[in-house]
Design a protein that fits this description.
There is one protein chain. The two termini are about 70 Å apart. The chain has helices spanning about 1-30, 30-50, 50-105, 115-130, 170-180, 220-270, 285-340, 350-380, 390-400, 405-410, 430-445, 480, 505-515; strands at about 140-145, 155, 180-190, 195-205, 210-220, 390, 415, 425, 450-460, 460-470, 515-525, 525-535, 565. The longest helix is centred in the middle third of the chain and has 57 residues, at about 285-340. A hairpin with a 2-residue loop joins strand 4 (about 195-205) and strand 5 (about 210-220). The strands form three sheets. The chain has a six-stranded mixed sheet with strand order 11-12-10-9-7-13. A five-stranded antiparallel sheet has the order 2-1-5-4-3, sandwiched between helices. Strands 6-8 form a two-stranded antiparallel sheet. By secondary structure, it is an alpha+beta fold.
Length: about 575
Amino acid sequence: MAGTDLRHHTARYGRRLAEWLRAVLERARHSRPGRLGWAAVRTGARRWRGSLQLRIVTITLTGSAVLVGAFGFVVAERITDGLVDDKLEAALSQVESARYRAQSQLSVFSADNDPGLKDTLPTLVNDLADDVGPAGEFQVVLTASNRKIRIDPVSRPGTSDTPTSLVPEELARVVVDSHVTAHQFTRADPDDRGLRPYLAVGTPVQLHWGTLEMYYLFPLDDEVDAAELVRNTVLITGVALVLLLSLIAWIVTRMVVSPVQVAARTAQRLSAGLLHERMSVRGEDELAKLASSFNQMAANLQYQIVQLEELSRLQRRFTSDVSHELRTPLTTVRMAAEILHNARDEFSPDVARSAELLHDELDRFENLLSDLLEISRFDAGFAQLESEPVDLVPIVRRAVESLLPLARTQDVRLGLNLPAQPVIAEADPRRVERILRNLIGNAVEHGDGKPVVVTLAAHDSAVGITVRDHGVGLRPGEEKLVFNRFWRADPSRARQTGGTGLGLSISLEDARLHGGWLEAWGLVGKGSQFRLTLPCRAGDRLVSSPLPLSPDDPAASPVPVGGVA
């Protein structure tokens, strides 16, 4: 029970601590320094992602700084170690020579109380101190740790401290206990010039009446100065080398990146429609070949685009001219066909059937001409939107009712799913109704006799209308192709079924003219669904639709049911 309470309290305090940390971070992030810091980080990240030259120079600077720093550290350490080793080797050699000298001069005395020993020790120390060898200047201390030997510690005159205070305790302990020559690096102030680094070397002086200890203190000022000079030289050289490498990297990357930047800017201008833009070609290297190839590609693209624009213009003009030119003979043929169709009861069965076929095909031909004229107006940019605040509920109902005869011939049941209240939007009622007629007619023709449901819904900024059928459906990728002109899911299908192949294309242009969306969803064997989304206010930008594109979307909000036709 106690363990459970402990875990409970620990978890509670952990959550409180996490919440406190989040609050602190959030306050820091929204404070002025925090905002400035985040802004600087975002700016730096944006410049890092957007500049190849910055990345190369930064990587070169970082890598060269690490390599030069590591190399300089190794070189400085090796030189310093070499200086110290040379100093130590010379000091040991000098101390060993001094030890033999001291033993030879002091072995003539029979005991520590010999009258001449007291005068000989200072003279010996001064002589040893004056004998400057390869290790340089030094201090000498001669003492006896054995209390049975009654001599005072002796050092070179002029030292401010007592002789024994100059000797490191650890070094003295090793020399006394082990009777071996030893050394230690220490800091001392024998001449009131401040603490300085010293190399202390101690060695035992073996005599027949006892053992003395002799210590040499070699100043390391020259070695320290040499090491500092080496480090400073390596540091200055390394910084200069890193800056030089960075400058070289900047120059090289600028030479390489500048043509790429020019190519990118030229490509952007080309994509913006400035087809005359070209890169300047200098030299004969790879970059010059790149610029030449880019210019050749741009020239080919310009030629192809101009050709396609000319062909498209000719095609649009041909379609428009043919559609207008066919209007007059079509009207004449329509009048004659109406007369024959009205008098078909007086003809023989074969002639009467021909009159009916002529009347039906003229209807199809007239619809095709109307669609072609509408497409030509969209292509020429002459289509205009006559938007006004309208209630879409009666428009949807009217579009469904206009297709009830077609639904009966196909044995298809049309369903309506409408809200009870009006749905007001700024739209062109003629174009909206045409979109719905095309969508519903397409669903009826491809519904395989299964029900078709039309749904209307709205939220604060958009209106959505879906047309759902349960027919053949769409294969993957066909949800984009259905809006292409004259596209058919089954190219081998007889032309007597289906429309002109332009209805969905015109519907897409009408939706775009409203600033809306027209989208398709479908699965083979499960039918398809088309969704029209329009802004409630003309000119507003759509963000979302009140209806899901997929009927199986679990995030779809419920839609009120208004009735069934």
